[in-house]
Amino acid sequence: METTAPRILFFGRNPAIMSLVKLHIGASGHAVEGFLEERAITTRLRAGEVDLLVLGGGVEDGPRERCKRLCADLGVKLLEHYGGPDQLARHIRTALTEVPGRGH
């Protein structure tokens, strides 16, 4: 039986931070895609096969709220991450195992 790594999307605003986050998430054994623009992340979420969306701290309130609503509508888990990448892998593991409806 083949298992696949959780598919994680990261939406942030800083390209340098995006590179670090992708490195940390990938090193944890997760498949990760990073996005800097709301339109691109929205399109990817709607395409399906996403387990978790990580919203970076630099995402503005409007796009943040729209992404949160879209995740709720699509049944995609959501993690709002503030701070550096040091605790990111642990926060992702927690978010992936949470029961739906008990957001992080």
Walk me through what this model shows.
It contains four helices and four strands; from the N terminus they run βαβαβαβα. α2 runs parallel beside α3 (61-74). The N and C termini lie far apart (31 Å). The longest helix has 14 residues, at 61-74. α3 (61-74) links the parallel β3 (52-56) and β4 (77-81). It has one domain: Response regulator (Rossmann fold, 3-Layer(aba) Sandwich). The mean pLDDT is 87. A four-stranded parallel sheet has the order 2-1-3-4, sandwiched between helices. It has helices spanning 15-27, 38-47, 61-74, 88-97, and strands at residues 7-11, 31-35, 52-56, 77-81. The chain is α/β, with parallel strands linked by helices.
The Cα radius of gyration reads 13 Å
> Can you list the strand order of the major beta sheet?
2-1-3-4
CATH architecture label: 3-Layer(aba) Sandwich
* Count of spatially separate domains: 1
In summary, what is this structure?
This protein is an alpha/beta fold and 104 residues long.
